[in-house]
Amino acid sequence: MTTTGFDIRRVGGRIGAEILGVDISQELDPGIVSEINTALVEHKALFFRGQRLDDAAQLRFASLFGPLTGAHPTVPSVEGQPQILPVDGDEGVRSNHWHTDVTFVRTPPKATTLRSLVVPPYGGNTLIANSAAAYQDLPEPLRAFADRLRAVHTNAYDYAEPRSEKAAEHRRRFVSTRYRTEHPVVRVHPESGERGLFIGGFAQSLVGLSASESRDILRILQSYVTRPENVVRWTWAPGDLVLFDNRITQHYAPDDYGDLPRLLHRVTVAGDVPVGTDGRTSTVIEGDEAPHYTPADA
Questions:
Q1: What is the pLDDT of residues 70-82, one digit of tens each?
Q2: Which of 271, 51, 282 has its CA nearest to residue 179?
Q3: Cα separations (Å) of 291 from 29, 53, 102, 199?
Q4: Kind of pairing, strands 180-184 and 283-286?
Q5: CB under 8 Å to 64, separation ≥6 — which residues?
Q6: Among the listed residues 189, 181, 185, the one whose alpha carbon sits nearest the alpha carbon of residue 247
Q7: 265 given a catalytic annotation
Q8: Cβ 237 vs Cβ 51: under 8 Å
Q9: Cα–Cα distance between 191 and 70 in angstroms, integer?
Q10: What pLDDT shows up at residue 162?
Q11: What's the predicted TM-score (pTM) here?
Q12: Residue 101 among the catalytic residues
């Protein structure tokens, strides 16, 4: 059992830190888990090099931070592992857009773990952005405006035309149940109290505004999230694990590795219902509470 502390090496100026000196494949002392969670809240994204976990160890580590979700509300899991989602870079099936995981349901995940199994020799990095820093970067009038906005997130919108039949089938499964959820544009973090822009690729419209107005305003807000100073880039090596706070980050996997293989396994920790600056919570517009995805006790 690990009973000593660990070292933290910052990776980016505003987001990201590498955790050194802890073997997360082993049983961890509750004090160490608490320290890792504190580091997660502060740095938003944590990186663990060369851990070489198996599926069981990844599940065990992720569960230290709360109940686990199913793999995904609509997309199949790894066979025999209902809580593990394969993030497979097969040509045409790539999430190369900025997003926060599963914001189209009422209770998006608290945190996400990604573990590398197969990585390309070049490209295939993961970018993670600090949405709290983005909120702080907003000019005060725009920040006050954002505080009052609500956005509709959905898994069914105008995607790019699938480039293969495999990609088309993935899209059909992804939208097999249509979800639409209204979230606050500015979310108050339940642990730190920080405010962050809670938007990303699934946020498709703003309540009370037209489609064109929504696109323009969301584009402006999103541009603050993805400023280079708010983003950290992780270059994968086999056996790495990344843990990021899904409540106050966005991430992106650039499609820059051609037809090379890339495979990660994703496990997510169940989250709570987002709360805005006015105390209002998120509401379901279409679909359900996704009880098959988020545990009832989360």
A1: 999 999 899 999 9
A2: 282
A3: 31, 29, 14, 23
A4: antiparallel
A5: 28, 33, 36
A6: 189
A7: no
A8: no
A9: 23
A10: 58
A11: 0.94
A12: yes
Strands (DSSP E) contained in 54-125 are: 85-88, 111-118
From the candidates 99, 180, 187, 262, give the one annotated as an active-site residue. 99
Query: Is 99 among the residues known to form the active site?
Result: yes
Residue from 72, 183, 247, 266 carrying the catalytic annotation: 266
- Alpha-helical regions (H) of the chain: 30-43, 55-63, 131-137, 140-147, 165-174, 211-225
Q: How confident is the model at residue 92 (pLDDT cuts 50, 70, 90)?
A: low
Side-chain half-sphere of 69: how many Cα atoms within 13 Å?
Answer: 29
Read off φ and ψ for residue 36, nearest 5 degrees: -65, -40
- 3-state SS, residue 287: coil
Contact 207, 152 (CB under 8 A): yes
Cα 101 from Cα 246, distance rounded (Å): 7
Active site residue 216: no
Q: Which residue in 106, 183, 251, 265 is the catalytic one?
A: 251
Structure tokens at 84: 């593990």
Specify burial of residue 165 (Cβ count, 10 A radius: 0-12, 13-18, 19+). exposed
The contacts of residue 280 (CB under 8 Å, 6+ apart) are 150, 184
| Residue 182, strand partner residues | 152, 283
